[in-house]
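Please check both lines for our workbook:

___
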Amino acid sequence: MATKPLQRKPDWLKIKLVTEQEAGDFRQLKQMMRSKTLHTVCEEAKCPNLHECWANRTATFMILGDICTRACRFCAVRSGMPSELDLQEPERVAEAAAQMGLRHCVITSVARDDLQDGGASVFAMTIRAVKQRLPLCDVEVLIPDFQGDERALYTVLDAKPHVLNHNVETVERLSDRVRAKAKYDRSLQLLARSKAYAPKIPTKSSIMVGVGERWEEILQTMDDLRSVDCDILTIGQYLQPTKRHLAVEKYYTPEEFAQLKEEGLKRGFRHVESGPLVRSSYHAREQKEAAVRSLESASPTEQSL
């Protein structure tokens, strides 16, 4: 059972005030999303960076409905047994991305363990639809583990997203406590398979801190991700969405996040985004561009590894 946080949120977790322009843009975009019966993880997961990202023409669409078959103890998305599978959704996502003028479109989903392929075919349809409508827009996918089904993973990769993202979320010791049904080793295996099958597609993962991990365990998680050649890492502060969720065990300082970024870069990640309010898709476009520049400048020996 969750307990109360150990302390109040520190000052560095305060979100800057939203301008009238940003608020107006948000209301307009939200209305457009609702008119197309679309969901964004930005809203469902109560992301603190929503207004900034939408203003910068980056958005994270959540496909396959808004009910997740898993009940992770850190996540604000509703859990239960989904009843919908909307095959027109990919086209509506593409329409919305075009209306928003997106330069970087992130596509994620609830976990759909009730579907044979975990929803991989709908991911592929959505990637292709967005790329057709917006040829210059980068498409990043943040996928579930598909219960280890490699054919489902390859279905997504065959649609050629610009970034393949799958989050380990936390350190190995805490994985079973924090995540529902997901397995730490299975997540690493997914990232390894992605790199082996489509080596030119950058891979990405995320760690949230503050759920009881130790510093050395964070570093070990970095090493584990680099062992499967993960290119991009994001690190952010866990914030308790409701009293029913895991409590915050520690608030990391900006200085500690800066140290973690240094540790990540030292280990060979192409890009590390680390900060109190960082989420998986925060500055996603900049992350992708930095990783691609790094990959392109890598020596032939590095590229063949």
The chain has one domain: 26-304. Strands lie at 39-40, 58-63, 104-109, 138-142, 163-165, 203-209, 232-237, 271-275.
